[in-house]
Specification:
Blueprint: H1 7-10, H2 18-21, H3 29-77
Length: about 80
Amino acid sequence: VMGPLPVAISAPPAADSIHMRLPPRWVSAEAVQSVAREAAERILAAERKAWRFQRDVDAVREEALMMLVRLKQTMDLK
């Protein structure tokens, strides 16, 4: 069993820290919107990727089921 973690690792910064709540004054609204837009684009891309993966999983599941049905039919004929 390891000892306690160093303070820098074990405790996240305080949520009430001014740095956590407000961007620096020099950050323009345009920059914040740009970052938000980029984040939204990444989220949408990840959702599309997840949808494609789910579609592939469904197709593989269907294919596996059909293979099992064919195998059962083959075994029943013997």
